[in-house]
């Protein structure tokens, strides 16, 4: 079988020819320039190609240890097996990524590691969904039904994503300064405890701020009745916080360098810090922020190739290896698949396959308030 | 075609690639932003095309945006002043040094070889709780516990000065380098002290360079959003951060467009004032 060469290989061969003297510098630069021009000229029209060949699929994720796990345990073996290259990009937040996708041509972005059901709903609102044929993804049978239901409620006719993992945004704290007992006693209110002024952190994400504001004021995050009290709690946190972090890497750095002692944090990242030997505790308070992540296929993508990749990624051996690498439990049902020794020890792991112990954001409720709350948070953050 | 007509066409032919790039990469996108600023963000999240003044009413009438804009101009002004105070002596030293001028200019350009974000983040390793400065202070026994130096407005200004200082030095250097040193000698021979010669001859002649550097520092400083994001605390934000949040976080492209045009207009007025009194030629000289 003849293996199709990709653009990187073409470039490498050209570079080798230039280095070996088979090609003069002018010709080399001319060819590179011509290739760039050809790409630039054809890209806007690429969507009209009726028989687009698929040598690569673009995947975008959260970067850091998460992307490393995906690269090592999923993409590299998939490329070896199928010859299809997975081009892997990163983003620091779902909002930023959605803005990029909206500004792109169909087909430019293919699969995204999206967080929360509300992201799935937002992509559906922007008409960015595609229709997956689940017959081509037989490993979907191993996935917890509880994780599929919320997506089906949004797009009843066909899924545009497969669930992949889940986790929580709980409380992370430095055990050198805060004991486990104190954390359990104070719960979410520790983030507005004056004793830790300038040693408190927080994610700059408005959803997380509002969620924890609701917990600090004793309200149900999916049915907030006193929003003014929540904004006051967010103001109190803002005045005590040293820094709002904007990425998982920044979260890990702030905790590891002891710039902050307590913050809310992503369960997998905190598990990674613990693995690195830092004495960081992790606690999910009652009604802590649970979330599920999916692999979302964006409208205009080569669906068959994407389905093949998704099925490969959901295969137990791949899924378990990725989960162990990124420290988030996989979407596979523990009652159907033996998940090994490490995964049951990860934060937020659910052995029952029902996820009844976690509280998820109600997508209709949160997306319905998004415009108002995200704007208000921008003001509250700046002292209003 | 006459020789005159051919000569008249030549500059336009030579300029056509640059003009085409300007039109396609600057004016057309700007036009899109202008159009977008009159659209509305619908409740579902999708944009609603039309001609609505709501975004402009909000951008111009809301005290929140006005306050952040004024705060941004204040931070940019402080940064420019610090750059001028630090940059002028450095530029003077380079301009008047003999022999090692090329090396000094090379050192000045050195920071540009490193990414702006990396340069900004380097301050975390210098000023952080377990950073270089605190480690030295602790090991020398000067302080008993680490000083809190990061994530406030001062560190934002520090990061901006770090980023913008070379622009100031280069502009002032170009201006000083073009001044005939015989003028200072002449002032001295007529009885002026060295300080008087500097304040009454060199400084006035170098003011166009200082102004060009000031304009660059101010405009670039006022338009930044990375520095407050990396080195600022929860409250520290500049106007560009609001544009970023409107477009990226809130997905409200119409309001973000209106806000970005507002910032562009304010900075455009400053550039126009500069051009009216000093002309853009000095700026081109400094950048060249």
From TrEMBL, chain B:
<keyword id="KW-0472">Membrane</keyword>
<feature type="transmembrane region" description="Helical">
    <location>
        <begin position="75"/>
        <end position="95"/>
    </location>
</feature>
<feature type="transmembrane region" description="Helical">
    <location>
        <begin position="102"/>
        <end position="118"/>
    </location>
</feature>
<feature type="transmembrane region" description="Helical">
    <location>
        <begin position="12"/>
        <end position="39"/>
    </location>
</feature>
<feature type="transmembrane region" description="Helical">
    <location>
        <begin position="251"/>
        <end position="274"/>
    </location>
</feature>
<keyword id="KW-0812">Transmembrane</keyword>
<dbReference type="InterPro" id="IPR000515">
    <property type="entry name" value="MetI-like"/>
</dbReference>
<dbReference type="Pfam" id="PF00528">
    <property type="entry name" value="BPD_transp_1"/>
</dbReference>
<keyword id="KW-1133">Transmembrane helix</keyword>
<comment type="similarity">
    <text>Belongs to the binding-protein-dependent transport system permease family. CysTW subfamily.</text>
</comment>
<keyword id="KW-1003">Cell membrane</keyword>
<feature type="transmembrane region" description="Helical">
    <location>
        <begin position="210"/>
        <end position="231"/>
    </location>
</feature>
<dbReference type="GO" id="GO:0005886">
    <property type="term" value="C:plasma membrane"/>
</dbReference>
<dbReference type="InterPro" id="IPR035906">
    <property type="entry name" value="MetI-like_sf"/>
</dbReference>
<feature type="transmembrane region" description="Helical">
    <location>
        <begin position="155"/>
        <end position="174"/>
    </location>
</feature>
<feature type="domain" description="ABC transmembrane type-1">
    <location>
        <begin position="69"/>
        <end position="274"/>
    </location>
</feature>
<dbReference type="GO" id="GO:0055085">
    <property type="term" value="P:transmembrane transport"/>
</dbReference>
<protein>
    <submittedName>
        <fullName>ABC transporter permease</fullName>
    </submittedName>
</protein>
<keyword id="KW-0813">Transport</keyword>
